[in-house]
Specification:
It is built from 5 helices and 6 strands; from the N terminus they run αααααββββββ. By secondary structure, it is mainly alpha-helical. Keywords: Coiled coil, Cytoplasm, Lipid-binding, Membrane, Mitochondrion, Mitochondrion outer membrane. Pfam families: MIEAP.
């Protein structure tokens, strides 16, 4: 019988957290660029391509978090019927979801993301390209964001606003930025956050 202890739970959480952070970096370094290459075959303007990918990341996290919240409610209701273990019900629910990721309907989240992008006012409408071409990136981001919700505390992304003041502690400047400008023209990739602290910097383009 598997016993529960705060120390063991902490070690498992720390290991899982490290893997998810590494995965976030891998998606940024490789799968994001693959998505850029796909979109560039349809769209010449690099800014539009980068805006599409950033919105895809934001919407993927939003859709995955909503799906996780709904699933956690159902799991807690089920576990509460005969929960007698030493671990809190909340922790038991997170642990159960982490061990049964197949309960997550990621396909539905992907469809929700694409639908949201189709009506996003910051993206070209009607779109110059079917956003389904970056379905692989969206799926990976949804799965990652969902898994990040099983951590204590969960990981999330920062939601940037065009025109905000550039924060060196939160973002890197893209190579085509105006390095003298203090303002963010648009976001390329979101920063990863934990309890309001930046874990992995995002990327932005600054212009006057």
């Amino acid at each position: 019988v598997r016993t529960w202890s705060p120390a063991r739970a902490g070690r498992v959480n720390a290991s899982h957290r490290a893997c998810l952070i590494a995965r976030f970096g891998f998606i940024y370094a490789r799968e994001r660029l693959n998505a850029e290459a796909l979109l560039r075959t349809f769209i010449c303007d690099m800014e539009t391509v980068q805006r599409i990918i950033y919105v895809a990341a934001v919407e993927s996290f939003r859709a995955a978090k909503m799906a996780f919240w709904k699933l956690k409610l159902r799991v807690k209701e089920t576990l509460a019927i005969d929960h007698i273990g030493p671990e809190p019900l909340e922790v038991a629910a997170l642990d159960y979801i982490a061990r049964h990721k197949d309960l997550y309907d990621v396909c539905q989240s992907v469809e929700n993301v694409i639908c949201s992008m189709n009506v996003n006012p910051k993206l070209p409408y009607p779109p110059a390209v079917d956003f389904c071409v970056i379905r692989t990136l969206i799926r990976e981001l949804c799965c990652l964001a969902f898994s990040m919700q099983t951590l204590i505390p969960p990981l999330d992304i920062a939601h940037g606003v065009d025109g905000e003041l550039f924060k060196r502690t939160m973002y890197y400047r893209s190579c085509d930025s105006d390095f003298t400008s203090p303002f963010v023209a648009y976001h390329v990739w979101p920063a990863l956050m934990e309890n309001g602290t930046v874990i992995v910097k995002g990327e932005v383009v600054t212009k006057r």
